[in-house]
Amino acid sequence: MVRPRLPLGGHGKVSRTEQTKNRWIAKARVRDLDGVTRLIERRSPIGVVDKYGAQAEAALIDAVAERSAPSVGDLTGESMLSAVWQIYRAQLVADGKAPRTLDRYDYVAAKIMHGLGSIRLREATTQRLDIFIRTLNDNSGPSVARTARVLLSGMFKLAARYGACASNPVRDVSSVRITTKASRALTVDDVQAILRGITTSTAELPPLARATQRTSRTTIAGYCAEADLVDVVTMFAATGCRISEVLGLRWSDVNLEAKTVNITGKVIGVKGRGLIRDNNTKTEAGKRVLPLPLFAVAMLLARQVRAEANVHNVVFPSAAGTLRDPDGVSKQWRRVREALGYEWVDQPHLPADLGHDHRRRGYVGSHRRRPARAPPRFHDAGRVHGSRCRPYRGRRGPRPHHRRGTGL
Question: What is the pTM of this model?
C-alpha cells in the first residue's frame, strides 16, 4: 500500500536517538510549503537535562511550526480567524494604511479576537457573525461595531479570494446604524463672540467634571492665554483646518507676504514612537494652499516676533518646544467652548461650521470658481486681539459693506 503524502507544513513520525547521557537528537521528515519533503533534526537544548528526549522533540516541533508559519496560501476552512487577521493586517500595512488607522483597527481587532479568534472559517456563519456584531454594538457602541464589521468583511473577502471559504458571510450581516445629531451652523457673530471670549472673557472657568476639589480659579481668557489656545483657535477660524493640521504647521509653510499657508502634513500619535509630524494629509486633496485673512496674518506676525526656535520649526509648539498633542488641545478647546456656551460645537474648525470651508462653498481654496476669500465681515473687519488692522481698500475705495469701528 502506498504511503499517503504529508500535507503541506506537516511532519511525519518523530524519532529520538540518545547521543550521550541526557543528550538526545530528534528527527522527522517535513513537507515544506514548496512541496519538497526534507529531513530536519533538533538536539536537546544546551544546559538542560533531557532524560528521555522530550526536550529535543519539543524543539523539533517548534522548528516545524516556524517553517509552516501561516501565509495567504495556507488559508483553508480549518484556519482560525486569528490567523486570517494576521495575514489581513500585514496586507493593510503593505497598502500604506495610516498609523492612527492601524491603531484603531488593532483596538477593534482585539475585541474580535476575544469573541471570535478561535472560530474556524468553516464555522463562521452569517448568523454567528450577526449575533457578535449586535452584541458588540450593545457593549462597546455602534462606532466599534461598525469598524468590526468592516474588518470582518475584509478578512472574509481575503479568505474567499483564496478559496478558504465559499463566500463572504459578512455580506448579509445587518448594517450598523449610527445616529447623528442635526448639524447646527455657526454664524459670523458666533465666531466673533468666541474669539472675543478667548481673549477678553473675565468669566470664571468651571472646574473639570471629574475634579473632586477646586485647586485654583482662573478666567476663560486667562486659561486660554496660559494654555496658548488663543492663536490656535484663531487659526481654526481663519483656515478651517483640522486640529492635527494646525499643530503641524511649520513656519516654512507660512507665506506672510502672499498671505497664504500651505497645508502639508499633520501631527499624529504613533504607538511606540509618540508624537510625530506626518508629511501626509488625510487625503491627497488635503494638501492645499489656503489664503489667510488679515486677522490671521496679524496674529502670525506677532507670534513670529516672540517665537522661540524649536526642533520641528512648527508654528504652535508645546511649552517644551516639542510637538503638541492634538488630543490634548482638543480637550482644552472643548472645556473652553463649553464655558463660553458653545458646547454644541463639536469640531473646532469654525469656518467649516460657518459654511465657508474650502470643501464647501469655495471661499477658501484657489481651485474653486469663486474668488478665494472669506466672507467680507470676517476677512476685512478691523480688529484682531484688540488691535486695529488696516481694512481692505481696492482701487475704488473701501468696499460697500465695510463699517468703521467694527471688529472681531
Answer: 0.60
The span from the CA of 234 to the CA of 339, in Å, is: 17
403 inside domain: no
Q: What's the domain count of the chain? A: 3
Do residues 56 and 26 touch, judged by C-beta distance below 8 A?
yes
What tens digit of pLDDT does each residue of 122-154 get? 899 999 999 999 999 999 999 999 999 999 999
Same domain, 383 and 298: yes
CA–CA gap between residue 156 and residue 259 (Å, rounded): 50
Type of residue at 303: R
Q: Characterise 397 by phi-psi region: left (phi > 0), alpha (psi -120 to 50), beta (else).
A: left
- Asked if residue 300 lies in contact with residue 255, where contact means CB atoms within 8 angstroms, the answer is no
C-alpha closest to that of 313 among 323, 328, 305, 298: 323
Same domain, 165 and 266: no
H or E, element range at 296: helix 294-306
Span 37-58, pLDDT tens digits:
889 999 998 888 898 899 999 9
Question: pLDDT tens for residues 369-393?
Answer: 333 333 333 333 333 333 334 444 4
Are 368 and 382 in a shared domain?
yes
Q: Which of 265, 258, 287 is nearest to 365 (CA)?
A: 287
